[in-house]
Every structure is written in C-alpha cells, then in structure tokens.
Amino acid sequence: MKKHSGFTLIELMIVLGIVAILMAFAAPSFQNFVKNDRLSTQINTLVAHLAYARSEAVLRAQQVGLCASSNQTTCTGGDWKDGWLVYVDSDNSDSYNASTDTILRVNQALSGNNTLTSTIGTNFLYDDRGYAISNGSFSLCDDRSTAYGKMIVISNTGRVRKNIASESPTC
After folding, report:
1. Is the pTM of this model over 0.70?
2. 146 in Cβ contact with 168 (< 8 Å)
3. Which residues contact 117 (CB under 8 A, 6 or more apart)?
4. Given CB 3.0 to 4.6 Å as the disulfide criterion, which of 71, 82, 86, 139 pairs with 104?
C-alpha cells in the first residue's frame, strides 16, 4: 500500500484556529505600530521641510517661510494638519503673497485624523541667515493620549529639536 502524505481536514482546521487566535492578539499591537509609524513619518516630514526652508533661506539670502494651507496653493491660515507651503518671501512682507513669492514645496493634509498645533501661529519664517523670526513649537498628536504625541521645538537660532522627556506635546 502506498502511503499518502498531506494534511487532513481536521489538522488544517486546528492550524487555522491557532492562527486566528494569534492574529486576535497581534491586531491591537499592529494598530499601535501603524499609528506610531504614522506620527514618526509626519513629524519627520515637518522637520525635513523646516530644514529645507532654513537651508534655502541661507542659500538664497532671502526670507523663506512655512505657512498653513488647506488648498496647497495659498496660505489659508487654517490648521497645520490641513497641509502647508514652503515659500520664498521675496518681498519681505513676512507673509505669502501669490504675485511676488515663489512656492518651493507643498505638503498635503495629514492622514489618520492627526492634529498638528503650533505655538508660532499659522506662519513661520527663517531670515536670510537661517535664524527663526520667532521661536516656538509644533505638537503632533493622534487619537491616543499625549504620551504618544510628538513635539519639536524651534529655537531663535533656527535649530529644530525633538522634545525631551520633561516636555510633552500639547494636544
């Protein structure tokens, strides 16, 4: 007689049951992983745009700014979570002017219902030396507690740093 190798239906059902139980335990931690990764990606994108704006200000010897924008074409002054523009402030008006200023980069609205608040307001500028016109911070949070939030602080010299343990985001 020839021996048949393979799985029986009962063995397959047992394995699928074990996999389903393991997935039930893994799903909540996977959701936290996705949320943490989304926060890290979004705060790193903001830091990259701030670094780009600062380097362009020094390179062009002109003011370069970031402003909140919900339509990605003008500074609407809304929430930072709706997106932002990086622009050259050619006329030194300390705000975006569509007729004279140049848009360098655009960031779309944040995903995942995350919030991005700022102590700076809806417009932030670097001068021609790369110094921040005003210092302040940005706080990025999701639907969990502030313990999971991310915060960056911008000094008068234009340096951007992530929050330290004694600082917590204001969500």
Report:
1. yes
2. yes
3. 79, 80, 138, 139, 141, 170, 171
4. 86
Is 33-162 CATH 3.55.40.10? yes
Across the strands, what pairs with 137? Answer: 153
End-to-end CA distance of the chain: 72
Measured between alpha carbons, how far is 67 from 75 in angstroms, rounded to an integer? 6
Signed CA dihedral, 119, 123, 129, 134: sign only: negative
**Residues 82-119 as b or e (16 or more Cβ within 10 Å = b):** bbbbbbbbeeeeeebeeeebebbeebeebeeebbbbbe
Predicted confidence (pLDDT) per residue in 53-73, tens digit: 999 999 999 999 999 999 989
Mean pLDDT, residues 133-137 taken together: 92
Short-list 116, 124, 72, 61, CA closest to 95: 124
Burial environment of residue 31 by CB neighbours within 10 A (0 to 12, 13 to 18, 19 or more): exposed
